[in-house]
Amino acid sequence: MRASRQALVLVSAAAVSTALLTGCGSKKADDTAGGTPAPAAATVTDAPPTTAPTATASPSATTSATATPSASASPSATAGKTAKPSPTASASSAKPTTAKPADPAPKAAPAPAPVAVAAPAPTPKPGPVAPPPPPAPATPHVPPLQSGCTPSKPQPDEPKEAVATALTTAAGQARTLNLSSGGTDKLPPLPVNLVKAIAWQESGWQSGILACDGGIGTMQIMPATVSWMNSKFGTTSDPKTLPGNVQLGTQLLDWLVAYYGDSSFGGKYDLSPDPATGKTPLLDLVVSAYNAGAGNVHYNTVTDPATGTTTGSLAIPNPGYVASVKALMSSAPWNKAG
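RESULT FIELD:
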């Protein structure tokens, strides 16, 4: 029994000694925990990635599935996982840009309303009068130099000196217009600068030009006008030749002078300004109708309701054309052209 107690005491003492030794070992391990821990194998967790970009980062960098965390707190230059790639020139240039919207196509300007100009009251010529000239084409003629359509050149242009001579010769002819109801109108020569100005406005004196709407040559003669003029004046002019073209154009001008002069100015064909008012109503009518057609240009009687006074009013659909031709008559740019 005594021997058993002694054995029990020895066992207990050994247990206490073992516990003390274990406690001392744990204390020493705790005391050394502030140093560098021994590396141990670990798996990648969802810890936040490194925020600083790496030196070799690019938009196509990938994350390594087998990376192990480093004991160092600073990121590695070759870290397998990067938070965001550093921006590069190609990345910034890939940024979408906002293109400036195209300007809207300009809207076509509405046709100007006829301009009414006060002038002496219309006075028809007694007896037979000149008939209306050929009707205007369905589509108003646009001189090729003012048209958006590029004209063609089926034949070469004559020299400007030759054009000037042909225009002067055609303007200087005193023509006789046969009236359909009997009688004749003897017309004075046309003002040379009027003929030259219309030719400059219509074609710039390009004798070989052909407009998209069919206007031919220097005076931009429409095909339907050719037979009308040749029949009325007994000629056989060819619009594709310089002499024939300017002959047809000046014949049309003379017919317009006779038509408006007979119907509204008592048979007078003077195109100069009115001495009392300074206005040029007959000239304006003739120039307007050469471009727009006589059927679209009118000289109307207007009565003042307060005074009963009657005056004439020009209804002109193309005031810009008229103003341009009259300005050309004054400036004569063909004298300065090379």
